[in-house]
Amino acid sequence: MRLIVMGQQAFGKDVLAKLIDTGADEVVAVYCEPDRDGKPIDPIKAYALEQSLSVCQPANFEDPETLETLASHDADLMVMAFVNIFVPEAARDTPKHGSICFHPSLLPLHRGPSAVNWPIIMGSSKSGFSWFYPSDGLDEGDSLLQWECEIGPDDTVIDLYFKKIYPVAVDSVLEVCDLFRAGNPPHIVPDESEATYERRCTTRHSEINWHRPVGQVYDLIRGTNPAPGAWTTFKGMKLGVFDSSVVPGDGISGRIRAISEHGIEVQCVGGRICVKRVRQEGGDKAPATDWAANAGLEVGDEFAT
Question: b/e for 186-219, b at 16 or more Cβ within 10 A?
């Protein structure tokens, strides 16, 4: 088949590389976002240029000239791997078989731009990814295929996305192409009664409330590790909270109950969080014990909520 690959960053580049290395299909063009002043060249663009592929970077897909160029590739399918820009129906339907898009959740769950963060924050026990037929709605449309994995009780965003979802998702693009090549690709109709939509997870959502149940606090920390990063404050200083664990203990929530070589134990409802790695605003990540010594933190102090 003749393919257009649209994407960005490492995932887009690795999907493109998988298709090039396999050689079962011909990549006739690569689409990515326009270059940004002061930003490094996108990995997918850099790789495409290395492979002497045609690279297109339209600012939008509603311009007639852009649609004309898209049609000139005479593509069978457009593979949309990690796409943040809106692609209207006229562009999506230009290839003979239309377009197929990747999303790192079990659609229709967790539609939106932070689909890896929210399942962990919400305490879910499973996640996965979907390849779906995009529509004008946010991550809406039937799915072609889905893959499910467990969210472990201590999984962070790195564990879930980069260690579990990412490698399988890159390989799965070959199955995607095989399903179209075979004809009559599947359409898994979403149950809209199960659909959820979440906004982008930012630091506005990741401030820690130490007076909540310890499980909820732990889910927030690991569901925002490494980005956008959970945070708290001490004496007016913003402190990012990263690697941590749950440990037993009781007391008044919000207070520091112990400081040791293992980390800082902060009391929550029903247990404690042992904070192991932190980052003071403007600084680098550091062991929590080292930061505590430099900041003058003592047992009995409180993090602000």
Answer: eeeebeeeebeebeebeeebbebebebebebbbb
Beta strands in 117-199 (DSSP E): 126-132, 143-150
Q: From the CB of residue 174, how many other CB atoms can be counted at a distance below 10 Å?
A: 15
What SS3 class is residue 71? helix
Q: Which residues are CB-neighbours of 267 under 8 A, at least 6 positions away?
A: 210, 249, 250, 251, 252, 253, 254, 255, 256, 257
- pTM of this structure: 0.94
CA 10 to chain centre: 12
Query: Which stretches within the chain are classed as H helix?
Result: 9-22, 43-50, 64-72, 89-92, 117-121, 157, 166-182, 214-223, 288-295
Q: Which two tokens stand for residue 222?
A: 């690991």
End-to-end CA distance of the chain: 56
Sign of the torsion formed by the C-alpha atoms of 267, 268, 269 and 272: negative
DSSP-derived 3-state class of residue 69:
helix
- pLDDT single digits (tens) 123-139: 999 999 999 999 999 99
Among the residues of 158-271, which ranges form H helices? 166-182, 214-223
